[in-house]
Design brief:
five-stranded mixed sheet, 9% strand, alpha+beta
Length: 420
């Protein structure tokens, strides 16, 4: 059980005991006074026994009626009426039998429990005056001055006691309210934690699904950039070899190119399966890797291609270098398949916050927003764009029929080792 629950349980137990005590107290005090009344006639024959016992019974019925009718306790006027009756009956019986001042202590208790504001202190004053009369032996046992002085002293003492009791009662109510607010806050916190747990579970599912989707896209891009491009290149070389079957030297050159492409594609496919960086980047930095790719592409396709590097070349994060290398490979592959270009220029630019790769050709160009008539292709540029956007970069394509094509991939200049 928590500390909060223990405090609430202890407070509830104390309230139950307090309620029982204050309910029984009037009857107990009245019983003590009645017992004294029954014994006292042996010494005081002047006591009007029937009248005193009759008033005792009336008082018991009056208090019992009030306790058994909770609606009286909820109504201010009815509670005031009850208390006035209690004071009148208490004063009457004390006038006949002063020892009933023992019972009139009930007036203090009921003033504190049932009266509010200034009426509470009025009840205290009335009870104190009756108790003062009881202490002086009834109205016939002392002078008026003695009774007034004793009443004044009793009122002051009882008023001071009530003030401290009232302050303690307010403090107790504040503690109860604080416990109730704490319980409510804990309930809201538990509900929030349960909701957060549900949201966390949803986020885990979404993150898992996003991870699966991202991995599928990565594999699709890698397959396109390795196997698909390699197979397309092999097919192109074999077709060229078929057309030059009567020229032995050209035939061997095309077949050799096809073998080299197959070997390179197989190596890249294996590296893709193991999710490691491309082989050319494993052996060199980005400018050298793109330069090597450009040189081999130029040799295979017999198209002039030149790489120019500007700025301060420096090691970049592996994702940055892989993205730009794949962009260069895809751009060159598109030139070989579609552009019918005679020259290609690549520019790798290192800036303070960005790294940019520009690929320009003098080919036939195309309409960027148009779809191919056969509905084929298109994933290369899509994959290139996805790679660039994963790094918060941008891909721009400028082309027009007969005017060549320019592709620009720009990514943040994330230095090597960042994020580890």
């Amino acid at each position: 059980m928590s500390i909060e629950a223990e405090l609430r349980a202890e407070s509830d137990r104390w309230e139950r005991k307090e309620t029982v005590f204050f309910t029984v107290l009037p009857y107990f005090l009245l019983s003590v006074c009645a017992l004294i009344t029954l014994v006292l006639p042996f010494w005081d024959v002047s006591l009007n026994l029937p009248l005193v016992l009759g008033l005792t019974l009336v008082i018991a019925l009056w208090v019992g009626w009030f306790h058994t009718h909770p609606q009286w306790q909820e109504s201010g006027p009815l509670t005031g009426l009850y208390y006035v009756g209690l004071i009148v009956l208490g004063a009457s019986v004390v006038a006949l039998a002063p020892w009933y001042g023992i019972f009139t202590f009930t007036g203090y208790v009921h003033a504190f429990l049932f009266l509010k504001g200034r009426w509470r202190y009025a009840g205290v004053a009335a009870t104190a005056m009756i108790q003062a009369a009881s202490s002086t032996g009834g109205l016939s046992g002392a002078t008026v001055n003695e009774w007034l002085v004793l009443s004044l002293v009793t009122i002051v003492l009882a008023g001071a006691f009530f003030r401290f009791a009232e302050l303690d009662d307010r403090r107790s109510h504040r503690q109860k309210r604080a416990l109730a607010e704490l319980h409510e806050a804990n309930g809201k916190l538990e509900a929030a934690l349960a909701e957060n747990a549900g949201l966390h579970a949803q986020l885990l599912v979404q993150a898992r699904e996003a991870g699966v989707q991202d991995e599928r896209q990565r594999m699709a891009r890698e397959i396109h950039d390795t196997l698909a491009q390699g197979l397309a290149g092999i097919l192109t070389q074999l077709q060229a070899a078929e057309r030059t079957a009567d020229r032995d030297e050209a035939w061997r050159r095309h077949v050799g190119n096809a073998k080299n492409l197959a070997r390179d594609s197989l190596t890249e496919a294996r590296r893709t399966v193991h999710a490691v960086q491309p082989e050319v980047l494993a052996e060199a930095r980005l400018p050298e890797a793109i330069s090597d790719v450009t040189r081999r592409w130029s040799q295979v396709h017999r198209i002039d291609a030149v790489l120019t590097t500007t700025g301060d070349p420096r090691p970049m994060h592996a994702d940055v270098e892989v993205t730009l290398l794949r962009a260069a490979q895809e751009a060159l592959a598109n030139v070989a398949k579609h552009a019918r270009a005679s020259r290609v220029g690549l520019t790798l630019s290192y800036m303070e916050d960005l790294v940019t790769l520009d690929v320009r050709d003098d080919g036939v160009g195309f309409e960027p927003g148009a779809r191919r008539a056969d509905g084929a292709g298109g994933f290369g540029l899509t994959g290139m764009r996805q790679r660039v956007q994963r790094l918060a970069g941008r891909l721009e394509i400028e082309s027009e029929p007969g005017g060549g094509t320019a592709i620009s991939a720009t990514v943040p200049a994330i230095p090597a080792g960042a994020g580890r």
